[in-house]
Amino acid sequence: MGQRVEGKIAIVTGAASGVGKEDALLLAREGARVVITDLNEEAGRAVAREIGDAALFVRHDIANEADWRAVMAATAQRFGAPDILVNNAAILAVGSIEDTTLEQWQRMLRINADGYFLGCQNAVAAMKEKGGSIVNMSSVAALGGMGMFCAYSASKGAVAALTRATASYCKQVGYKIRCNSVHPDGILTPMTLALLPADGGATELATQGATDPMARMCSPQDVANLVLFLASDESRFVNGAEMRIDNAQMLMGVA
Fold first, then answer.
1. What's a Pfam family in this record (predicted)?
2. How far is CA 117 from the centre of its chain?
């Protein structure tokens, strides 16, 4: 058991699986009490049980304003005001500028952008007295664009800009709240692996990250390690930063 976020209260969205689950487990191992939110109640409650008394599960649609109020109320009632928000929940879909429908575009922006706006807004209100850290999951798609992920790239671009605006505002008004964005390339999660064809080499992708210097796909644990650093006081002077975790893929072109 570590001490890097000892005594802190964290909210992690989309924590029933993938990166969010690893974030929640690692933050708990390092001393935080963790509120796990997700639409998947069964899996979310299982993660909370795995952590034990230091965890609480709340069902949560991140694009629903009332749900955010409920999460904040449940957090305050069980643990107190949060110190950490990890805006992690998101959706991913393939679609270029030519074949993305307006409905698909609006759904992507509603969840990936509106949901993060509501998270930042509610976190600032809850943290402004004592300070805290907001970690927003973005993507290298926000920085370089991915032709076959039009709406997703736009939504993650909105997250990056929202992060900068939130960090700037909090510093301007004197709140001790930091806000940073994390920009992975590929992460080996059920959401991303589902996009690969059945013979797409998922097993090979899952193992090459540790051995192949050209690997693009990292593990959820790799991302969780960065999230932990940004959530902890170790990163007290890191604010408004865009943290790439992509094995230099952005420098080589993300397509």
1. adh_short_C2
2. 13
